[in-house]
Amino acid sequence: MTIGIVYYSTYGSTFALAKEIQQGVSDAGQDAVLRRVEELMPEDRMDDNAKSAARSQQDVQLASVDELAEFDGLIIGSPTRFGNRASQMSQFLDQTGPLWQAGTLAGKPAGFFTGTSSLHGGQETTILTMSTYAFHQGMVIVPFGYIHENMQTTRTGGTPYGPSHFTPMDGSKTSLDDEEIAIARGYGKHFAEIAAKLKA
After folding, report:
1. Residue 75: beta bridge partners?
2. DSSP string for the chain
3. Is the Cβ–Cβ distance between 159 and 177 less than 8 Å?
4. Which residue, among 97, 96, 109, 120, has the nearest Cα to 4 in the 3D structure?
């Protein structure tokens, strides 16, 4: 069984979250592959931090619409843009119309993750707006709820809808904290277990 983790990340935090979710899937004894969505922003519009983040992700294979059909489950991640997914992710998902027409993804599990630069900047709304994709594809949405102990204490990232991160633009927090990591890994494990049950 293989879980596809398809993400977009401007500054690297969502990429870091994707890797922790991948580890959680692995902890459940299943395989997960990372696939990044292509950057649409011209390089001359990117600041040094974004350029550095892009270089750090160069070894991650670009996402392919055709490959989505091969995954036993799909976890989609994007930073928030005004309470919604980034346009890069929307552009990729908009290409999956043929999969919708054929019902290729119907019945497969789907999950979502995100991140914001302000604590109330749209972590939950971004996941909710991304989830409509799974509804239209007929996928089975796998939320996290409050089954993980860190969900009761987190003051940064982590929602019952899916993992998230909080990375302030002022540079006061530049990496995932321990709670965000624990939630991401816990979610990856939970998702893999649900996916295995569905496949069985």
Report:
1. 5, 111
2. -EEEEEE--SSSHHHHHHHHHHHHHHHTT-EEEEEEPPP-S-GGG--HHHHHHHHHTTTSPBP-HHHHTT-SEEEEEEEEETTEE-HHHHHHHGGGHHHHHHTTTTT-EEEEEEEESSTTSSHHHHHHHHHHHHHHHT-EE---TT-SGGGGT-SSS-BTTB-EEE--TTSS--S--HHHHHHHHHHHHHHHHHHHHHH-
3. no
4. 109
Strand partners, 109: 140
The predicted structure's pLDDT at residue 32: 98
| CA pair distance 96, 45, nearest whole angstrom | 28
Q: State mean pLDDT over 77-97.
A: 96
**At CA 78, angle to CA 142 and CA 90, rounded to 5?**
95
Q: In which band, very low, low, confident or very high, does the pLDDT at 176 lie, cut at 50, 70 and 90?
A: very high
Q: How far apart are CA 61 and CA 64, in angstroms?
A: 9
Question: Predicted confidence band at 184 (pLDDT cuts at 50, 70, 90)?
Answer: very high
Six-digit token string for 80:
């928030």
**pLDDT tens-digit profile of 132-172?**
999 999 999 999 998 877 776 667 888 899 999 998 877 67
Residue 15 CA, chain-centre distance (Å), reads 8
